[in-house]
Write a structure and sequence with these properties.
single chain, 4-stranded antiparallel β-sheet, alpha+beta, 614 residues
Length: 614
């Protein structure tokens, strides 16, 4: 009928020859009027909305439970409220930061599959969420603070100034014994960074990713006695207390501060922490890529193909992509780039990395990769010979290093590496050669001391006493600083990042005191030089302080829900307590049990399947 009226009206307008624009306007005006006349009709229901006229049930405000994201739940039927007006509730996650994140319903606990928007258990409308923050452990660097090339100096926190006199060069009106009055950090030479390329690692320090920074070349042996268990005077070695193995790694040769890969244990190497979400991949981290020429490229390694490392620069506004051949990269950089693109559970990939590390003369890394690959039963028998060959090459390298050090009159280093070779050699001929070298070095040291004139001997003894006194004083300064940083971390008032930084500074200072006295006790044994304090007492005090630090850090991580990281710290505390014979071993074990229970609970939740819809 409306169409007929319009046709009649338009016919009349044509008869009277109205202007064209008027004839176009009138139909539009009529349509608008008709639309306004129908506004009293009810709109179609939204999806999921009730269509009956029954009023919604009222809830007692005291019975309403507020949910994250602004939604509520209570005793009313879920279908009483229009779904279109419900704000999606944030999914809750059971997660290990830098590890596995398990989404589940915040109301009934049902585990969700990826992309779930409605809970199959209670019908709650949900939405996933992520919050990306700077990793508080590595502060965005993505690397372990203790092992690996190109890392910030722990002694000065990357500032480059002496941490004991704060760059003044003096303490209490006297010259600072740590920096000798220069005001610069002695560990990193004042640049704030430690790198293999810059040569600021000592001969006995390990600078490879995932390798224990205390023992030498992943040997797992005491770094001072070389695994003999005794000092130069055949007394019990104060560093390892006669146990022969490295106290820090327990003889494994792997860094105790990460997961064996040289990456930050908290963020997995990405430098970013995804709260309530999956972590970033290590390939997303921005790091310094060292060319063989010494040039440093800042960027991401986005992949590799046909032996080319593909790099996307971030220090270039254009974001240029480069393909770098192995010969153009520093060996540790090349190994690290391939490691980031190789799954830890891929035995074929670990074999490839082992061959690469061996070819680059990174024998400790090759040993670790052979062991990882051999953990797969399908590869175990095939790789026995490769691991044995890598061990033999490492022993031969120690012998060569010992002979080179002896040629430069560095008898201490020569003796240490010869002892390592003698302890680790598997074949009798190599072991006999190493033992002969040990006897030769010791004979040279004894002969030199016996041939000295009395005046020179007295002067040498005076110099040794002064060096011992200086080492003990430095160690006490380290312990004082460690205690201050521990109290700052425990007393509160600091942010999470600052607390972790304080814990790391405290442990590093106590470790420095322990290593300083242990090395000095090998050079000047208490039987030949009078010590102002027994080296055993100083080392024991350092270990007890490190034990307190490890226990406090583990407890802090348990409280934060980072159970995997807490368990690692608790195991370290148990090892330190066992070596020190301290009564805190029970406390450390209790924290370890709490961390393991937390991991088990989350593992059960992760393995719980979501219920099927009825």
């Amino acid at each position: 009928m409306i169409r007929a009226l319009l046709r009649t009206f338009l016919g009349q307008t044509r008869r009277y020859a109205l202007p064209v624009f008027v004839r176009m306007f009138i139909p539009m005006f009529v349509v608008v009027l008709l639309a306004l006349a129908t506004t009293t009709c009810a709109p179609p229901p939204e999806p999921g909305q009730r269509t009956d006229a029954a009023p919604a049930k009222k809830q007692d405000p005291s019975q309403i439970e507020t949910q994250p994201g602004g939604a509520t739940n209570g005793s009313s039927d879920e279908s009483d409220a229009p779904a279109s007006s419900v704000t999606p509730v944030h999914v809750e996650y059971e997660h290990l930061n830098g590890g596995i994140a398990v989404p589940h319903c915040p109301r009934c606990g049902v585990v969700f599959a990826a992309g779930t928007t409605t809970c199959s258990g209670c019908g709650l409308v949900v939405a996933p969420w992520n919050q990306e923050t700077l990793c508080p452990q590595c502060v965005g660097a993505g690397v372990c603070a203790r092992c690996g090339n190109d890392r910030a100096c722990l002694a000065c926190n990357g500032d480059g100034v002496c941490p004991y006199c704060e760059g003044e060069g003096q303490r209490n009106g006297e010259e600072c014994i740590e920096c000798r009055g220069r005001g610069r950090c002695r560990t990193c030479a004042g640049d704030g960074w430690r790198s293999v390329r810059d040569g600021d690692f000592l001969l006995t320090e390990t600078a490879l990713p995932g390798i224990c920074p205390t023992c030498i070349d992943a040997s797992g042996l005491c770094p001072d006695c070389g695994g003999t268990g005794v000092d130069a005077a055949d007394q019990i070695c104060p560093t390892c207390a006669g146990e022969r193995t490295c106290v820090d790694c327990g003889g494994t040769g792997r860094c105790a501060h990460d997961r064996g890969d040289g990456l930050c244990a908290l963020c997995g190497g990405s430098g970013r922490e995804i709260v309530n979400g999956e972590p970033l991949a290590p390939t997303d981290r921005i790091w310094n890529i060292h060319r063989a020429s010494g040039e440093v490229i800042v960027g991401r390694v986005i992949g590799y193909e046909k032996s080319l490392i593909l790099v996307k620069r971030t220090d270039d506004k254009r974001g240029a992509e480069l393909g770098l051949v192995p010969e153009k990269l520093e060996p540790v950089t090349y190994y690290s780039a391939l490691r980031d693109h190789t799954s830890m559970g891929d035995p074929a990939g670990r074999v490839m990395l082992a061959k690469l590390a061996a070819g680059l003369d990174l024998l400790p890394l090759a040993l670790v990769e052979w062991r990882r690959a051999a953990a797969d039963p399908a590869y175990a028998k095939k790789l026995v010979g490769q691991e044995r060959d890598a061990r033999f090459q490492l022993v031969e390298k120690w012998l060569a290093t010992a002979k080179k050090a002896l040629s430069t009159a560095d008898r201490e280093a020569a003796l240490r590496f010869a002892q390592l070779a003698a302890t680790s050699a598997r074949d009798e001929s190599t072991a006999a050669s190493a033992r002969a070298l040990v006897r030769s070095v010791r004979a040279e040291i004894a002969n030199e001391s016996a041939e000295l004139p009395d005046a020179d001997r007295r002067r040498l003894e005076s110099m040794q006493r002064a060096a011992v006194a200086r080492s003990v004083e430095e160690a006490r300064d380290h312990l004082e600083r460690a205690g201050q940083r521990l109290r700052a971390a425990v007393d509160g008032g600091l942010s999470d990042a600052a607390v972790r930084k304080a814990f790391e500074e405290a442990d590093r200072a106590a470790w420095a005191a322990e290593r300083l006295v242990g090395a000095e006790a090998q050079r000047a044994t208490p039987t030949t030089v009078t010590w102002p304090a027994a080296p055993d007492d100083v080392i024991d005090a350092a270990r007890r302080l490190r034990l307190q630090i490890a226990v406090a850090r583990a407890a802090t991580e348990v409280a934060a829900g980072r159970f995997a990281y807490a368990a690692r710290l608790a195991r370290r505390a148990v090892a330190l307590a066992t070596v020190s014979g301290d009564g805190d071993v029970a406390h450390a074990n209790s924290i370890l049990q709490q961390a393991q229970l937390g991991m088990a609970r989350r593992g059960v939740l992760r393995a719980s399947p979501a219920p099927e819809k009825e």
